[in-house]
Structure formats: C-alpha cells, structure tokens
Amino acid sequence: MADHLQASVSSLGSSLQLLDSSISTLDSGISDFPRLCKVLQTTRHFELLPEPTLREAQQSLLDEITPSIAHLLSLASNHVEKLSRREQGLRAKCELQEGRMYSNESRQPSRMRSAYGDRLQSGGASGKAAKAAELKRLMQKKERLQYAVERLELQSTQRERQLRKSMAFH
C-alpha cells in the first residue's frame, strides 16, 4: 500500500508541476490581454446612415433654410430698389440744380441791359430810373416764378416716383 501511496504522491506531484507549468504558460499568454483588448477593439470613425435617412435630413434642412433665404433676398432686393430710386432722385435734383446754375449764368445784367437798353435810352433820367426799377422788379418776379415752376416740376417727379413705388409694393 505504501507503493500505491508513493505512486499517487508522485503522480500528484507531477500533476502539480504540469499545473504550475500550465499556469505560467497561461499567465505569460494573458499578461498582455488588456493591451490586446485595446488593439483588437473596433472603433467606428464614421457612422453610416441609410440613404433615405440622409435625404430626409437634407430635405428638412432645405425646408428650414429656404424661407429665411427668400426673406433675406426680398429685403436685399427692396433695399437695392430703394437705393436706385434715391439715386434717380438725387440725379434729378442734380440736373435741376445744374439747370438753375446755368440759367443764372445766362441771365447776366449785361444781357438785360442790351435787351432793354434801347427803350431806357429814349426816356429822361428820372424815367430811366423808374423803368430800371420796374425792369428789375419784373426780372426778379420772373426768376421767382421760374424757381417756383422748377420746384413744382421736381415735386411732381418725386410724387410720380412715390406713386410708382407704392404701386410696386401692392
């Protein structure tokens, strides 16, 4: 029986050695396991979506942005039209002022004297002074009336523009 017991003890000892050897082999094999888990782990860099989902997202963005873009375009268009009308008004005003300036240059006293000088020379000294005063008064009245006509014409063109502007918005 001692032999059998001795054989069991030796068999148990060799089994223990084999188990130790297996444990050390397993230990060396799995000691790098956390790193291997990290290396072998899959990472999704891009999320793949089905094409209908992508189209729905694009359409919802388009539906959301389109009214804002249309509103901004209409605001910009209205502002451009307003600036265009203002430019036209300023050009008309400039032309009116240029016309006034040229008409003032053409109405110099030398031309008035030459036009009415013959009549003034025929009368006496007191008659000349009275006629000159009357002529001056009439020339001033004529200038005032010309300015009034020009001002009314300018107002008329401005009202026409305003009417066109109000008709364009309605």
TrEMBL record:
Q: Where is this region: Disordered?
A: 100-128
GO CC terms, sorted:
DASH complex; spindle microtubule
Q: Does the keyword Protein transport apply?
A: no
Top-level taxonomic group: Eukaryota
Q: Per the record's keyword annotation, is Membrane included, yes or no?
A: no
Record's keyword terms, sorted: Centromere, Chromosome, Cytoplasm, Cytoskeleton, Kinetochore, Nucleus
Location(s), subcellular: Chromosome, Centromere, Kinetochore; Cytoplasm, Cytoskeleton, Spindle; Nucleus
Q: Which InterPro entries match?
A: DASH_Spc19
One GO BP annotation is: attachment of spindle microtubules to kinetochore
Q: Describe the family membership recorded for this protein in Swiss-Prot or TrEMBL.
A: Belongs to the DASH complex SPC19 family.
Give the PANTHER family listed for this entry: DASH COMPLEX SUBUNIT SPC19
**By what name is this protein known?**
DASH complex subunit SPC19
Native organism: Aspergillus eucalypticola (strain CBS 122712 / IBT 29274)
